[in-house]
Amino acid sequence: MIRIFFLRFFIIITFLIFIFRLINLQLLNPNYETISNINAIIEISDYPERGLIYDRNNKIIVGNQPVYDLMTVPENIKTFDTTSLANLLGISEKILKNKITQAKNFSKRLPSIILDQIPKEEYAVVQEHMWKFEGFFIQRRSIRDYKVNSGANFLGYISEVNKIDLRKNKEYELGELIGRQGIEKSYENILKGKKGKKFLQKDRFNRIIGSYNEKKFDIPKQNASNLILTIDSELQTYGELLMKNKRGGIVAIEPSSGEVLALITSPSYDPMLLVGNDRSINYGALSKDTISKPLFDRGLQAQYSPGSPFKVINALVALQEKVIEPKLTFKCNKGHYYAKNAFMKCHCEFDTNNDLNTAIYNSCNTYFAKTFTKIINKFSDSKKGVDQWKNHIESFGLGDYLGYDLPIGKKGFVPNSDYYSKFYKNNSWGASTIISNSIGQGEILTTPIQLANIASTIANRGFYYTPHFLKSSNSPGLNKVYEKKNTSIDSIHFETIIEGMFQVVEKGTAKIAKIKGIEVCGKTGTAENFTKINNIKTQLTDHSIFMAFAPKKNPKIAIAVFIENGYWGSRWAAPISSLLIEKYLEKEVKRKWLEKKMINGSLQNEYIKPYLNKSFKINE
Amino acid sequence: MNKKIFLFDWISFSLMIMLIIIGLVNIYSSTFNTNSSFFDFTIPVGKQFIFLNICVFFSLIILLINSKSFGKYSSIIYLISIFLLIGVLFFGKNISGATSWFSIGGLSFQPSEFAKLTTSLAVAKILSEIQTNIKKMKFLFQLSLVIIIPAVLIILQPDPGTALIFSGFFFVLFREGLSYYYLLIFSIGLIVFILTLLLDIMVIISMIFILTSLLYLVARKLNKKTSINPYLASISISIFFAFSSIYLFNNIFEQRHRDRFNIILGKEVDSKGIGYNINQSIIAIGSGGFDGKGFLQGTQTKGNFVPEQHTDFIFSTIGEEWGFSGSVTVIFIFTLLILRITQRAEKQKNKFSRIYSYSLASILSVHFFINIGMSLGLIPSIGIPLPFISYGGSSLLNFTCMMFIYFNLDTNRLN
What we know:
The complex is a heterodimer of chains A (620) and B (415).
Chain A: H1 2-28, H2 31-40, E1 41-46, E2 53-54, E3 60-72, H3 82-89, H4 93-106, E4 112-118, H5 120-129, E5 136-146, H6 152-155, E6 158-160, H7 163-168, E7 177-179, H8 182-186, H9 188-191, E8 196-202, E9 208-211, E10 227-229, H10 233-242, E11 248-254, E12 259-266, H11 279-288, H12 298-301, H13 309-320, E13 330-332, E14 335-339, E15 342-345, E16 352-354, H14 356-362, H15 365-377, H16 382-394, H17 417-423, H18 448-459, E17 463-465, E18 470-473, E19 484-486, H19 491-506, E20 521-533, E21 536-550, E22 557-563, H20 573-586, H21 592-600, H22 604-608
Parallel strand pairs in A: 2-10
Antiparallel strand pairs in A: 1-8, 2-3, 3-4, 3-5, 6-7, 8-9, 10-18, 11-12, 11-22, 13-16, 14-15, 17-19, 20-21, 21-22
Helix pairs in contact in A: 3-4, 10-20, 13-15, 14-19
Chain B: H1 2-7, H2 10-30, H3 44-64, H4 67-72, H5 74-91, E1 93-95, E2 98-104, E3 107-109, H6 111-128, H7 137-156, H8 160-165, H9 169-175, H10 180-198, H11 201-222, H12 229-252, H13 255-264, H14 276-286, H15 299-302, H16 314-347, H17 351-375, H18 393-411
Helix pairs in contact in B: 2-3, 2-16, 3-18, 5-6, 5-7, 6-7, 6-17, 6-18, 9-17, 10-12, 11-12, 14-16, 16-17, 17-18
């Protein structure tokens, strides 16, 4: 019996063992499926081109340009003339050989980069000779191309993701690009589009032998959306030109929408510096310049004393709190004593009687110091007074981030009673202690975009829209509606103020800002400022400030200009504002002499002063 | 003639045809590239189709031969095959390290495949003769020579895989009355061989000593008259096996064989080197899941990850593209076919027919066991084809001829 059934027994056992093994391999062990995928299928990302960026007039500012990388798969390299390849690429033979060795060490079968970002012009020549070099090939890639040499500060830049990015966001893979600053960062998700996936079939030598499963599993890429910015590229470029050899920040806003027309910081840099092979070297150089700080966006990040333009805000608060009325006059005797032995100078003549209107266009310190004192002293307690004042001020968007769509910014500063109580023990402070705030000095700090927003709010007679940089995009659901933000000041009071600001340009401190045929309203400012030299607080030449909007009726542009150490307001800030307004409204600047004077004017002498290691004069 | 149609073993025939068709489909898939067609005679599937036609031709001739002639001419055919095996060593063509092929014109022919057929006939002939008594050493020696001579000649090629097939005749001899002792020795030999590769020789010898002594002491306790001789014999045989295993392993085997054993025994882990073939085969089969990836959809197959996939590793294509259902079907067909032939063999009145059929079943079994076992990673990589399915003219021709000799004998069982 055993003899007869032995073979059958053997074959049945074999059958059972095989079935058992197959169950184990095919039904119970799902790992083999994944290994198979790792082995035979290569998953590659399919990147859409990064979205384009246009200005408000549909002029392209940021595009893409193709660059070409010379790649190699080391195992495919046939003997070739290293000298001629090195010459063709314009690199030394030694570097070429090193690169090839590195590629070999990385992988013999996977492609490595030998030379990256060969420019278009050289690519044509290299491509012609490629047939001589088996195992090398050229791969196309796309990098940023800036069509306009301006706006680097808000456009931002892109660079390869680092380990931190990878940890934060699982969507990215090594070697991918990510927006680092400005619009590129804020709208990264829209600009990058959505990468697709391609599954390719490999053979065991890692050679790609075609699409996997007739592309059934491929995920198509989603093209990136383009952005239309609120920026007027011509105005931006013109502003940067005017700021040559000057430091400061300029922000121009369309009051009726809150759209930022220009965001200028000076000094800035050519956006093309942060594209291509020299990106990191250039970035290093820019970030090391801690004196002129080209990467510091003064329009958003610099916190300055607002100076005299802030007087109009105080006037508005006073009107709203009914502590003054337009016809009320204060006497100024080249200044006034605001406390015992404390005199605040003013450039008014002796025995000048200013009402609100004249006080604004003559920028009378006395008038606004007295107004401010009245606001604070309206209440029994100056703490209450300061806090009430602060609430009004904050309704203009000061003392906090404005909420615009760029990743950087500063809050500025609006002091409150707690701040002073901490600073002056035993509540030994009052209106006279903090009087500097009345004329925009003292503790109050604003950024240029905040001051521009104030100009915009005044132009709108009491409200503003959050300043923003994105006008529209072809990405659905992105076009955010910004809600109207009302100040705590009644609209009626603005008319009074605006009349004063109109007179500033017509016959007051900023006649230079007058433009034929346009009713410009503005307010000059001259703000004291200090720095520390060897730990000693040292005063520098005043900042030149101007805040304006135009036209008076139905304003189209509101602007704030800060020129560091430019001395008085109408010296630099007012003419620059005026030129920008003219440029924006008239498209062409007729006052060529003024334009030339502004472009050629340089404040570099002022900027060196603190570094000369000797005493220097200010406000020369 | 009408009667013969009824007597013909249509079941085995159908199972064989199924396997051949499965073979063609999977050879096509294994070597598929987008611009190949099924009937392109420059690619394996086209060539296999030509071989199939040659097989049909030979099969028809075999069917026409008088069934008594097979026994009568078995010695001559056997001797021819031995001469061919000797001849191939001198005049053969060396393909991938083994001189196994005669190349005539464009066709290659493997005499070692043919030897399986002729040895089966020779074994059947000797065992079926009336005076043969397998219990007698003289006949056993004669039989052993008939089996071992072609095996040794094949080892010389060297093609140890094919030579191993001849161990299948053990099933035949055992069926025909080979002493149980040989089964015991065979089994002990196998166990000792595997253990020697795993453990140190001294450990093995001590284990043998302890085990046998214990057995002897137990037996002694049960029966005082127990002789010590069989125990001494088994100790010496075991030790002999252990040493010869080591000798075999280190001196006869080539490094690649040693590596293969080491990998299966888990002594070496090497997924990209020697173990690569088996590893890739397991991955391919494993990735098939229940219903497979579909015809021509195997990623491992298409990527050529499994070497020799249309020949020795064809089962991995089946596993990947047809999944568990397809693999089980193939294994089931093989099992059915072998069981069918074995069952029919038992029914043969003619001893020659019975032993020949049994030889066929045994050889199919060994092929089936080794080839699929290897594809599933259960045994070392041994290069032998899967009958009817693997690409290869000589193998297909040999197995169809063997099958048709069986059909002829079986159909004429009543004569």
